[in-house]
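The material for today's practical consists of a large collection of protein records. There is nothing in a record beyond a sequence line and a structure line. As an example, a complete record with its sequence and its structure tokens follows:
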Amino acid sequence: MSGICGWVGEADPATLELMLDAIGHRGDQVERAWLPGAALGYRTWRGRPGQAASILERGRYAVACAGDLSPSVACPAAAILACVSSPDPTRNRLDGSFAAAAWDADAGRLTIICDPFGLRSIYWVEHRGVVYFASELKQLLAIPDLPVEIDPRAIHSYLTFSFVAGDRMPVRGVRRVSPGRVVELHDGAWTERPYLRLVEALDPELEADAAATAMVEALSQAAVKGRLPTAQGIGLYLSGGLDSSAIGRWLHELDVPVRAYTLDFGEQSVERDEAMLVAQSLGLPLSLVDARPDAVAPILPDLAWRMDLPFGDGVTGPHYLLARAASRDGLTAVFNGEGGDQLFGGWTNKPMIAAEVYTPTPSAHSRAKAYLGAYHRFYRLEDDLYTHEFAADIRAQMGDGDERLELLERELGSEDLTTFMGRLRKTDIAIKGFDNIMPRAERIAGSFGLDVRSPLFDRALTEASFTLSPRHKLQGVCEKAVLKRAMSGRLPDEIVWRQKSGMCVPTTDWVLGPLRDVATELLGPDSLERRGLFQPAYVSRLRAGRDISHELRPRRIGEKLWALLMLELWMRAYIDRRGKARGVP
């Protein structure tokens, strides 16, 4: 839950207070360290188990660590210091939910590191000879006279994925430290190296179903156990799908008192009944959280502010409602089932496998284009959506290249992966996990004072998953086969073996119905012309419920409009008002 900030160079001490004040939701206790050539700030909750007690100053080093390690340790900052001060900081087993900064006063070296999967984030920016870093973007925007304007390349990425992929940020000049990497600043130069490298090495001893299932079961149970907080008050986001239900089962077997929360979309609910069945089978108290449009509309400006970055998936509004409900019940930690699709071959692999089969000579480039097309936002619709001026800005910065394709080509063409399924899973972890699922989950939960626990994004479990044959993930048409075998007989059969439906958020019904006035205010001609990014005629066609002629799925309209709506709310909060206000002007 904690947060950090600081700088290297000479800056006004009052700036540290501004950066700490920007994350009041991350604690009621503040620590500061004024060092030769640097400053560190740290905010946390008093008495919260697993958090670093304060900024650690030991000899020539000072370390501020946000979050905690898994398994939990008495002082996360000390474990981080042991890693960054060793001759080879990449020799470690760091795991958990953390972001840290260490200052070596003798060497004049700043080291920044975050957890392997990006649950915690840390950003940096250079301004007037000073390097600033912080846990949240709003902290950097609190720096007096820092220029704040959008980065067109990042917005271009967002409109393809519904999040910004890679280390680029939507504010020009701000960068992010990539998960699983150690970044160092020394003598004005940045260096970066991975401390986690996912390599596929299939183990013949795990070819048998029983051996693979036993390994996944043991490591999954250990991942849940290693993330148990010592404090009481634990929640579970229970969708009724396999992944969150499996987490519920393992918590139940550990005799952990848990309160489950599931979403209620009213008549449009898809997995509510399944969640109720799982809760009943495990004896979990279950709260149904109202997620109908009347509950969603009032939270939208606050949601955009809490997320810190623009996230355009419709699940964010419901996730806000889940976190708010858990916080109001006095909980301090929530578990979720995020990561099952990425680790064990969820439904998103099938379209890519089909594209692979029907492509005569598949390459990293053709695979990247197929992967981009699966997002169904505005890829290949840029000429319809962008104004001439905005399109020119993007071309001027990108030249002849395409950062989206280049990023995916690197992932899908990685020599560390030996099978096509392995490449898909690594790409899903790096793009969907690092850049989207993990940071948005932590931002929303953290803004309500909750520590979020994602056991399936566990380092040992993830590394082990790359030793399993692809058939243990996709066996015929059976997705996540190894996880289903592990849960067979331990959850109701209709949960384990049913076809995945996912969280079907009815965004199209919302934005064309009860939220129509909200969409009109945010995406009407006056608003669009003032921003100068998008063509009003195309957006008006979407708001009228008309998509491109060959798109037959009505839900695509909602996905596109929701992405535009959340981007406009984010720009009002962060570009227009520098992250200082939650409301819409």
In short: The chain has 25 helices and 17 strands. Residues 487 and 493 are 9 Å apart (CA to CA). The chain has a mean pLDDT of 92.
